[in-house]
Design brief:
By secondary structure, the chain is mainly beta. It has one domain. Helix content is 0%, strand content 20%. It has no helices and 5 strands. It is globular, with a radius of gyration of 13 Å.
Amino acid sequence: MVPAAWGNVVSAGPRDSVIVHPDDVPTLTVGIPTRKFWGCCGPLGTGGRNMTCTCGTLVATLVADCMGPHELHLDPIRVYAWDG
């Protein structure tokens, strides 16, 4: 639930992406820490994919600044699920 004080909240990630809590994917790391897209406490998520998997491919967008919710948007083109 989004607090009413936030008003209208628009997702920062790409359309059709799966959103998970950042702690649910501990193997991903910050790939491109560009200060331009960082707030005072973490990434804003406005600069596109910023999290890499162990192979180094950018696969997700982390939104984790103190001004909003913490969420991880998995890129729908690079990340998919299967029953294995």
